[in-house]
Design brief:
The complex is a heterodimer. Chain A is mostly beta strands. Chain A is about 0% helix and about 55% strand. Chain A has no helices and eleven strands. In chain A, strand 9 and strand 10 form a beta hairpin. The termini of chain A are far apart. Chain B is an all-beta fold. Chain B has strands at about 5, 10-15, 20-25, 30-35, 45-50, 55, 65-70, 75-80, 90-95, 105, 110-115. Chain B has a single domain (about 15-100), classed as Immunoglobulins (Immunoglobulin-like), CATH 2.60.40.10. Classes of the chains: A mainly beta, B mainly beta.
Chain lengths: ~110, ~120
């Protein structure tokens, strides 16, 4: 119940395309869902986050869609650029200030 | 604003040896986290400090791992003795407090290889 399942494991997208990464959870006590971006040799950095009381949050080219009833949320990267090539992790706040991270999606955007 | 600093960046040791990692969080951040990131997986929380007290160490293998945060600032994570399965990147993160939406800032990590 403390898992966050992330898919796909890897993703290749053409420049200008839409990248979509999906996550699913089981624990309904999770109440905050951030996405992190990690470049090689760097630590993860917060990209965008959502609370379950909204269904969508958009920041620039990045959008989180949240489906509370299905216990799923996804990251959409519009107009994907080669600079977006990185590993993306979804996470869920599990109480007592602990985050559970997904397994990561390696995104490659072709120029 | 300086980020989270970690050292060393890379470490290679033989199994059964000991190793220590150091973390200097962002100035003023009360909460410090150590994560283990095994290749191909997401970060897994090992231990969380609030100032110099431990908030959560439920996933820390206490028979071989130890951590301390003296004076509520810098922190060290030690492994003794190391096993092959400890090969991973060890990430340190800090946040201003430990609130629900408080952003965690990660350091670059220490890549440990156990031979």
């Amino acid at each position: 119940q403390q898992q966050v399942k992330q898919s796909p494991q890897s993703l290749i997208v053409q420049k200008g395309g839409i990248s979509i990464i999906n996550c699913a959870y089981e624990n309904t006590a999770f109440d905050y869902f951030p996405w992190y971006q990690q470049f090689p040799g760097k630590g993860p950095a917060l990209l965008i986050a959502i609370r379950p009381d909204v269904s969508e949050k958009k920041e620039g080219r990045f959008t989180i869609s949240f489906n509370k009833s299905a216990k799923q949320f996804s990251l959409h990267i519009m107009d994907s650029q080669p600079g977006d090539s990185a590993t993306y992790f979804c996470a869920a706040f599990a109480g007592t200030y602990k985050y559970i991270f997904g397994t990561g999606t390696r995104l490659k955007v072709l120029a | 604003e300086a980020g989270v600093a970690q050292s060393p960046r890379y470490k290679i040791i033989e199994k059964r040896q000991s190793v220590a990692f150091w973390c200097n969080p962002i100035s003023g951040h009360a909460t410090l986290y150590w994560y283990q990131q095994i290749l191909g997986q997401g970060p897994k929380l090992l231990i969380q400090f609030q100032n110099n007290g431990v908030v959560d160490d439920s996933q820390l293998p206490k028979d071989r791992f130890s951590a301390e945060r003296l004076k509520g600032v810098d922190s060290t994570l030690k492994i003794q003795p190391a096993k092959l399965e400890d090969s991973a990147v060890y990430l340190c993160a800090s946040s201003l407090v430990a609130g629900l939406t408080d952003t965690q800032y990660f350091g670059p990590g220490t890549r440990l290889t156990v031979l």
